[in-house]
Specification:
Blueprint lengths: L1 H25 L3 H13 L7 H7 L7 H9 L6 H42 L4 H11 L5 H10 L6 H18 L2 H10 L18 H11 L2 H97 L2 H32 L11 E3 L5 E2 L9 H13 L1 H8 L7 E2 L3 H31 L12 H10 L3 H12 L7 H33 L6 H14 L5 H16 L4 H14 L9 H12 L4 H19 L2 H17 L20 H27 L13 H4 L2 H8 L6 H18 L7 H18 L1 H15 L16 H5 L6 H10 L1 H8 L6 H18 L2 H4 L1 H11 L6 H12 L4 H14 L5 H16 L4 H17 L3 H16 L3 H14 L5 H16 L7 H21 L3 H5 L1 H5 L7 H14 L1
Antiparallel strand pairs: 1-2, 1-3
Protein name: HEAT repeat-containing protein
GO biological process, one term: intracellular cholesterol transport
Keywords: Coiled coil
Amino acid sequence: MEAAGGSAADERWASLCNCVVNFLLEERYHLTALELLQELQEDGRYAHALRLRAFFSDPALFPPDLVARASSTPPGGDPQSLLEEKIAAQEKLALAEYDLRLAKEDLSQLKLELQKKKESSPEDSNGLLLGASTHEGSISKQDRRDLKISALGTLKDNERRDLNCAVKEYLLLAGYRLAAMTFIEEVPDQDLDVWPNSPACVPDALRRYYYQYLSSTAEAAEEKISILRENETLLRDNDQLNAEKDTLTKSREAANSQVTALRKSLEAAYKDIQEKEKMVQDMRQSLDVQRKELNDCRAEITALKMYIEGAQSNGDSKVSESMTNILTSAVSQTEDTQKDCQVIGNNAEGPSVSEAPVSCTTDENGSYGTSEEEKSVSNSSTENVTSNSNLHGDSMIDKSQGSSDGISVYVSTEKLEISNKQKSSDKMALETIKIVSDALPKIVPYVLINHREELLPLIICAIEKHTDSNVRDSLTHTLFNLIKRPDGQQRRIIMDACVELAKSVGEMRTETELLPQCWEQINHQYEERRLLVAQSCGELAVYVRPEIRDSLILSIVQQLIEDPATVVREAATHNLSLLLPLFPNLDKYCKVEELMFQLVCDPSGVVVEVALKELVPAVVRWGGKLDQISRVLLAHILASAQRCPPISGVEGTIDSHLRVLGEQERWNIDVLLRMLTELLPFIHQKAIETCPFASVDPTSSTPENIFSASCLKLYSTGDSEWSAFEWMHTDCLPNLIKLACLLPGKEDSLRTVITKYLLEVSWCYGKDYLEHFMLPVFLVAAGDIDSADFTYFPLSVQPKVRGLRPKTSIAEKLAIVCVFPLLLSGILGSPSSCQQLEEYLRKVLIQNTKDGSFSMHHTAEIINAVRFLCLFVEHHGVIFNILWEMVVNSDTSLKINAAALLKALVPYIDVKVASTHILPALITLGSDQNLTVKYASIDAFGAVAQHLKNDMVVDKIHIQMDAFLEDGSHEATISVIRALAVAVPNSTDRLREYLLTKIFKLTSLTPSGDDIERRRERANVYCEALRALDATGLSCLNIAFLPLNIYAPQLHSKSTRIVIIDIVDSRV
């Protein structure tokens, strides 16, 4: 608040100063203006003195030759020459006034012509205004104000006196006393020390005049009028919207009444359908009962017929007559039953009775025979029946003439024979199935593994046809265990057989016979068997009832997800994704979501890949709960980092905010960020589908056409709710920033994943979204709120974004360390922001260092951010362009920063880039006249020697190191030996021998000077170098006798002698 108040006071003070400057120049108080210029420059207010400096440096007003002549002329110069110069100046002034008058006349004429064109063609007013603004672009608001002031006429004496007194008061209050004294001398006709009492005489008058002037401008009035008009327009729009709302309410009520009526009619129809279905079921049951009775009657008729034939053959006429009566009544009952069955079958729309009716006929002689289609009864039986019926024909005809004229009995002898044959054939087939079923378990073990698949048709047929459930279970067990450890092709063959079997036996037998076998194989000792079960669940789910899919099969999959074998978990993940569309409802959604996150965080990369590519999209499409998944995902990401311990327990330090990630937590964060990337297309599509603006084209293939600047401008008004779109910059990006602030500096891999996600977001949502939403969010989070533009943020969203600004110095440093790398690589690193990235890097690394901004206090953090940016090869060109500007800059601090940045970038470049960019820049810095810059480049050379082993690079390093050692300074020697000692473990033998040679040479020289601290430091550096060389395995001859020669002329400290003895003992 204090900073904001100070900046506002400075702006007011600058405005008052500009007013005083304008007054002095307009009233031609040039001496006072010149004195004010000198005092402003002495106070360091260069920005306030710009106009004065421009005025007095104008060659048209103050020619250089006259100024030089005046400065060289002594006080007692020649009056004649001064008079001539005055006359020449007056002539120039007259010419300038004439040109000014002509320009004003031309300007007034142009304004009149423009006004006429406006009145003649109002429809083209916009174009004319644009043209006029282009032609007269130099006329600013200040010029228009000046014109309005000049239109008031010349100043009156009292007005001039009041203004002069106010200006004098301002100069005194501002501390410009010399300018105030000069001003009093320039106004000799007025006594400025005494200000008459008038309405204009007020304390701090000039500031009050300025405020009154601002509040009375025409622009303020015009703005007020425009606000009133806009208010009226909004009121009219509000009334129109209310009317539309009433209309829609009435329409909704009418639609609700229609829906209620339709719902009632639907319920009535549903009840009617239920009643009819119940009636159909009753009729079908009655049909089954009637069919059973019909079959019983047929059997009874057949038995009676055979009994009658036997009785007639024995000549028992009384028995025959009684049997005939019984038969006649039975036939009548059979026909009635058959008719009832037909009526019931027709009413129930079921299949008609397919069996041919067994019927008997009584001919005119009283004999019993078959129908015309079935007159294949034996001749002997027919003759016996005919002869016997002739004896008693009359009596039987008399008794049955009126009641049994249409009675006929049909005996299907041929069909009975076919039925008997079919029964015998079925019996034989069943016996065959039993024989095969008994033999298969004994045959399978003795068939070669590669040929056991040929037994599958027999096994399937036996399982399908056998009547004993125990035998079927045994054969199903044999099917699943056909091969002890089946490979992929063999599992595919067994699975195809199981699918064919499930198609044949139906849902119930699949549930009771196949699925129990799957359950038994879950904990099998061989992973190939468990893999077979995992692969079978998804394919067999189609052939079971829906309620079994989300109960038993889901339980099997859940057990397999816990399997220790990676291939089993992978197969279970794949089949779970196939199983989800078959679930009848979302009752098991919470369980499935839990399984999804468990599989995404699986320790195996193969399982994670399948979960991300198949399971996650399947869960999103099946459940339709993208918001919940996104919310839970962000919570899991933050929780994985927050549960880790901090680097340091000391409060108030940056390490107390950073976390030490374990391997499991690091893996979880990595895969969850990848899951967030997989969800991005769904999030983007939902944002498009829920867009409240009609201008958006959902079918467009380019993001710029979907989230264009016009669409984002409509969103910025805040009139429409668009939660799916806001989620990205109000929830997702802030949570990623929180995650980044928990990651220590070494977690470049996780920062790279976050960066890739941000780049993917910028590609999906387009350049406008990147520039107007993502960039301001990260600028605020990085502490650079002055560069953030909130134009496109609704007022309801702006507080959330502004809340990301660091509140304390620790938070500011944390933002630079953790968020600034993401700003460079993930936001400005987008392909569409290459130019913006270069400008921002130049601002941070070069320009801001001159202004004393945060770049001066966070140099190491900014260099680390640029180092992270160098992980992306596409940004190398931009980085090295900025580096060269720093190298050739005259500022020493910039050159030192360039050396540190070059050292940080070395591990991330190859030999080609080092040869073309790094080494030339380091050589330039190493040749600098400033010793600090020169010594700063030595460590960077050591980093190059450590990471690059190319012979050409090593030769250049030798040459540059020789140049450093030739200086002979203590600092250069220490820096070179330390840099090479650090590079020795990973460098070539040539560089090791070079270091060894230099140590020989340096230690053979007699120490100069008596500074014991320097001698001790040099001895310790040589000792460290010897330890590094000793660890590389150089020859014993080189190392063993080196300490005896090196340290003889050096300081014989205790620690040095101990190191020498250790090295000699280990080598000799």
